[in-house]
TrEMBL record:
<keyword id="KW-0342">GTP-binding</keyword>
<feature type="domain" description="SRP54-type proteins GTP-binding">
    <location>
        <begin position="270"/>
        <end position="283"/>
    </location>
</feature>
<feature type="binding site">
    <location>
        <begin position="191"/>
        <end position="195"/>
    </location>
    <ligand>
        <name>GTP</name>
    </ligand>
</feature>
<dbReference type="GO" id="GO:0005525">
    <property type="term" value="F:GTP binding"/>
</dbReference>
<keyword id="KW-0687">Ribonucleoprotein</keyword>
<dbReference type="GO" id="GO:0006614">
    <property type="term" value="P:SRP-dependent cotranslational protein targeting to membrane"/>
</dbReference>
<comment type="similarity">
    <text>Belongs to the GTP-binding SRP family. SRP54 subfamily.</text>
</comment>
<dbReference type="GO" id="GO:0003924">
    <property type="term" value="F:GTPase activity"/>
</dbReference>
<comment type="function">
    <text>Involved in targeting and insertion of nascent membrane proteins into the cytoplasmic membrane. Binds to the hydrophobic signal sequence of the ribosome-nascent chain (RNC) as it emerges from the ribosomes. The SRP-RNC complex is then targeted to the cytoplasmic membrane where it interacts with the SRP receptor FtsY.</text>
</comment>
<protein>
    <recommendedName>
        <fullName>Signal recognition particle protein</fullName>
        <ecNumber>3.6.5.4</ecNumber>
    </recommendedName>
</protein>
<comment type="subunit">
    <text>Part of the signal recognition particle protein translocation system, which is composed of SRP and FtsY.</text>
</comment>
<dbReference type="GO" id="GO:0048500">
    <property type="term" value="C:signal recognition particle"/>
</dbReference>
<keyword id="KW-0694">RNA-binding</keyword>
<keyword id="KW-0378">Hydrolase</keyword>
<dbReference type="GO" id="GO:0008312">
    <property type="term" value="F:7S RNA binding"/>
</dbReference>
<feature type="binding site">
    <location>
        <begin position="249"/>
        <end position="252"/>
    </location>
    <ligand>
        <name>GTP</name>
    </ligand>
</feature>
<keyword id="KW-0963">Cytoplasm</keyword>
Length: 297
């Protein structure tokens, strides 16, 4: 399970402080040291760890904590709040277009889970927000991608627009949006090509797709298992495309959690959804506060 080792270590630390009738500055220092090590071991970005630890330390030695009747519990509350803040605080809602259709662009490296997430999210939003989705297959470089999207669309009964792999992705997107409008689809999800690495050709093409599709959301799909790499990828994509959100996939795996904990802080982009498995219903809106309480037990 994701975060298992981090959760175990933090819970151990919190247990030591929970029942204390008095908490000294030395206790707080010891707690902060253990939290720091646990986060570093979970592959959280070291700058993020540094500012996080100094924040909890500052708050935990504050008067309202040390003078309270249950200082141990107050310290834990501080850690929990700051952990939730680190992941974005309140849940970040989807942006819908004031004038339909709402357009969502999926970008990311190959294998991150773009195609799967586009289909999952089309299905999710159709049910949750009563929308009529269409998906556009704009990944013309990976031959199986178009077929994969069509198969998923077939399973979910969601139409997929394709012009095959001989037409430019920008043109596919332009025509796909025309067709969606003509057929009164109020939600358009665009699956784009991934590469093995971030490169300029990919970015130029994505910028052009962005320019013709005016997306309401640009979601970077990242694989939680890739740790700090996921954070670097997010920074590069964000610099060029101004992402509106991240979908973090494979949180059902045994990721240490570093990417999930760092990405918001480093890039300013919130995680909006998490992928929890390969099945089509395995996607959930991301709630930082719930995740923080899960980690702290
Ligand atoms: P793309 O190249 O970015 O379009 O990636 P795909 O959508 O083809 O996904 C790559 C692989 O990751 C596929 O085998 C998916 O089933 C798998 N996958 C995607 N999301 C998740 C997830 O949340 N959990 C798990 N366990 N597997 C996932």
């Amino acid at each position: 399970m994701a975060f298992e080792s981090l959760a175990g270590r933090l819970q151990e630390t919190m247990k030591k402080i929970r029942g204390k009738g008095k908490v000294s500055e030395a206790d707080v220092k010891q707690m902060a040291r253990e939290v720091r090590l646990a986060l570093l071991e979970a592959d959280v970005n070291f700058k993020v760890v540094k500012s996080f630890v100094s924040r909890i330390q500052e708050r935990a030695v504050g008067q309202e904590v040390l003078k309270s009747l249950t200082p141990g519990q107050q310290v834990i509350k501080v850690v929990q709040e700051e952990l939730a803040n680190l992941m974005g605080g309140d849940q970040t809602k989807l942006n819908f277009a004031l004038k339909p259709p709402t357009v969502i662009l999926f970008v990311g490296l190959q294998g991150a889970g773009k195609t799967t997430s586009a289909a999952k999210l089309a299905n999710f939003i159709r049910k949750a927000n009563n929308k009529k989705p269409m998906m556009i297959a704009a990944d013309v470089y990976r031959p199986a991608a178009i077929k994969q999207l069509q198969t998923l669309g077939g399973q979910l009964n969601i139409p997929v627009f394709t012009l095959g792999d001989k037409v430019s992705p920008v043109e596919i997107v332009r025509q796909g949006i025309e067709q969606a409008k003509a057929e009164h689809n109020d939600l358009i999800l665009i699956d784009t090509a991934g590469r093995l690495h971030v490169d300029d050709v990919l970015m130029d093409e994505l910028e052009q797709i962005k320019a013709v599709s005016h997306p309401d959301e640009i979601f970077l799909v990242v694989d939680a298992m890739t740790g700090q790499d996921a954070v670097n990828v997010a920074s590069s994509f964000n610099d060029r495309l101004d992402l509106t959100g991240v979908i973090m996939t494979k949180l059902d795996g045994d990721t240490r959690g570093g990417a999930a904990l760092s990405i918001r802080s480093v890039t300013g982009t919130p995680i909006k959804f998490v992928g929890m498995g390969e099945k089509m219903d395995a996607i959930e809106p991301f709630h930082p506060d719930r995740m923080a309480s899960r980690i702290l037990g």
